[in-house]
Every structure is written in C-alpha cells, then in structure tokens.
Amino acid sequence: MNARGPVAERLLDRSALPALPIAPDEAERARVLAARHGMTAEREIELAAPVITRVERFAAAGDAVAVADGPVGLTYARLAAEARRMASYLLEQGVEEGTVVGVGGERGWRIVAAFLAVELVGALYVPADETWPAARVRDVLGQAGAAVLVVAGEPAAALTAGAAEAGCAVVPAEGADACEPWPGEPRLHSLDQPRYVLFTSGSTGRPKGAVVEHQGMINHLYAKITDLGMTGADVLAQTAPLGFDISVWQMLCPLLLGGRVEIVGDEVAHDPVAFARAVDERGITVVELVPTMVRHLLDDLADAPDGAFGALRWMIATGEELPAELSRRWLAALPHAGLLNAYGPTECSDDVTHHRVTAADLDLLRLPIGTPIVNSQLYVLREDDDGAWHACGIDETGELFVGGVCVGRGYLGNHERTREAFFQDPFADTPTGRLYRTGDAVRLLPPGAGGEDRPTLQYLGRVDRQVKISGVRMELGEIEAVLQRHPGVGAAAVVVHEFPVG
User: Fold this and answer.
1) DSSP per-residue string spanning 225-268
2) Are 309 and 235 spatial neighbours (Cβ–Cβ below 8 Å)?
3) pTM of the full predicted structure?
4) Which backbone phi and psi does 82 adopt, to 5 degrees?
5) How many Å separate Cα 227 from the centre of its chain?
6) Residue 358: which region, alpha, beta or left (left: phi > 0; alpha: psi -120 to 50)?
7) How do residues 42-93 score in pLDDT, each as one tens digit?
8) Close Cβ partners of 346 (under 8 Å, ≥ 6 residues apart)
9) How far apart are CA 279 and CA 264, in angstroms?
C-alpha cells in the first residue's frame, strides 16, 4: 500500500470494524440508561461550513482582528487572503485532495493560515512540533505519509532532519507570500471527510495517528462555544504546542464567532507572572492549561500584579486529572473566573465531556468530568468473565465508551490497533456509526453528587490501574486522590510492588 496515497485508502471502513460483544438485552438497557442519565446530548448544529467560510464571512463584515501574534494583528480579511496564498503554494508543491500536509515550526499566525489552507484544498493537517526530536518527527511524518512539511519561521534542526529521514520535502511557509490567492471553493465533499491527524504516544512507544473528521472537529468547536457561552467579544489564548490536540480548537474556535485568537509564545506562557500580565494587557478571556500549569500559575500568583486575570472568564483544565485541592485553590484565588474540567481522547475530536467545578465538588475524592458535549453519547460498560459487555447503573464502575459525531476514523494505516479500540456502534444510529473504547474507568455519580442536579461522570483512572489486594479491588487513582488532599502533598503516584513471601 502506498503510504503517500489518499488517506481514505489507509483507513478502515466502519463495516470492517468488529462488533462489540454485548450480553443479551444489554444493548437496549444501555440505550435506556444513557438517555435516562443524561449521557446523550443531541443538538442541531451547522456542520457543513468549513472554518475558512466563516472567516471570509467576517472578513466582509469589518476590520476585526482575527489573530494577534505579538506585534502582528491579522484582520479577518488578511487572514483569509494569507490562507488562500498558502493554498496556492500547497498546490504548487503538488498537494492534492486527500493527501497529508505536515505543518510545523514556530506557533503563530502562519500556522493558523496553513491550517485554513489545508482545509481549502481538501488535504489533511498533521502537526510537527518544533520541540520534537528528529526520531519523533520521522515517525509522525513517515506514518502519516506527508508529502510536504510547511515550516513557519527558522526550522529547528530536528524538524528538517526528521523530515528528510521520512522522505518529506521541507518548504518555508514564507514562500506563500509570493503567491496569488487561490480563487477556488473549499474542497469539502462530505461531513465525514478526514480533516486532521494527531499522533498519540501509544502504549507500545510507537505513535498512532488518530484521524479526525470534519464533522467531529466542527462539532467540538461549537460545543466549546455553547458550554462556555463564547461570543465575538471573547479572546482565546493559543498556548498549546502543535502536537497537542487542544492546539486545534485554540486556533480555530474564535474564528467561528468573529472573536480573536491571541498567540501566546512559550516564553510568556511558561512564566506565570508574565502570563498574568499578558492576560490583562491583551484582554484574554479564555485560557486552557493542563492542571500542572494551573498549579504553577497559582503558586506564583502572589507575585502577580493586583487585579491580575481581571478579564478572564474561563480557565479550562484538560489533559491530566484535575485534583480537588487544586480546584479549591483556584476557586478561592479567582472566584470570578469559571473553572471547567474537560475530558476527552484525541480519537474523539478532543473533549467529549465538560464540567464546571463548584465548591460542592470539593468534598469528593475525585472531581466529576461532567456530562457529554453536544451530539455525543457516553456509555459505561463492564466486561464479564466471558468477554460480554453489560451496562452499568448509578454508582457502578465501568469502562467509558464514546459514540456520536465526535468519534474519529481510527488510526491511519494501522488496522490492527483500530480494531482494538473502535467498534460498530450497537446502541445508536449515529453519523459515524462508530464506538470508541477509551480504556478509562469511570463511575456514574447520582444526582446531587458534586452539586449537580443530574447524574455526572467521575474519572477513576485507566482500567489497567485497578488492582486486587487480598481479594479486594482497589483503584490506585483513588489512593492518589486521598494523598493529594493532605496540604503537605503536592503530587502523588501510587504503584504496586509484589514481594516474594518467605
């Protein structure tokens, strides 16, 4: 199979996915429980319009700034023009519909324009982070079958070396400046068209390329808009490295609203005092960080100017489990800024649950991860000794499965790993027809737990972290959560060691 051929040839059709072995009558029970407990969320969303179409609509409406990158502020009109120049540039490099385009280098407006250009020509975006070693770059670009790597700014030596080892041509993003804007219509032929591929680490150490569809990406963007109450007045900080899936929504979501993407460089993003100053000076209203960075931010907040984070409306914590004690500190220090606990796998277009943290949550050992985003279905299932799956009720621990528009296409060129994690959806007739097995243990909390008036999910850790000691099943993550409640413990990790007897 040609690794540089159309992506569709390297993806499993859903008819080739395995059926999930369900115990008799359990499919109907799972459907009933999911509906009863609010684990399905349906809403009509306009999924057909590409992001570039919205950008050009706002370009015609005024001179609002779409992307602020240090001293450079691109209006919607200029961003649209730069994206179309980049589209012409990609076509000159031989990029075709359905092929993969690597994008890397310095985070900035050229990366945003490159993503929109890839969308315009109907190709797929795959990021290559400038901090990756050459071996990682080689593995990602090689597995993706990227024909070209567009690099913004001065390329790191590892980027060019890794691309060369993968047989991928490297071209400077600045080369698009000499091109005329491409006049064509966006090449979007179906809602299930693959849009980007993000590589996860993988338990084997070799990265797996999770392919996300157009409809999954757009649905996630609108889920953020809905649950955060975002408007054209919002300014979202783009802080995530390109290799993280959250970087996608950070650079696209405001563009659907006429809002602003604020590029925050690593030097500022990693300095809590400088970051606090940037939030205020740039009027940033929405920030997303991993809990580790939130902790560092709070640790140094005493050195920040008075009134810091005054414009901030939301802090989103994702990528790691959010400890209750860290949430307590946030609510005490910045009560005006909502704290959103978000959870989701890359394979499902980023976050699939949201939960606004309140004081009532802090009595729980582990915070809720919330309820499903729009057009997603969540199922808590447990496997019996015969390999058949059963639906779990309130307060029962099981494994989380995800269905709906958000579920991606599987792993690029890796049919075996796709069949291990993706199944034909036996519960609902969804646009994707796929069900994703997360490998995460969860519990459905009853109404009233954590202040919610409806059931909500609680994350318990990976399913393979459940151990049995003297016949008693124990979740290592729960022990960690108890340890972290002690004021003298900043972080905790629990492992099991077996010692020979006698």
Assistant:
1) HHHHT--TT-EEEE-S-TTSTHHHHHHHGGGGTT-EEEE--HHH
2) no
3) 0.91
4) -65, -40
5) 15
6) beta
7) 999 999 999 999 999 999 988 999 999 999 999 999 999 999 999 999 999 9
8) 198, 200, 210, 212, 245, 408
9) 9
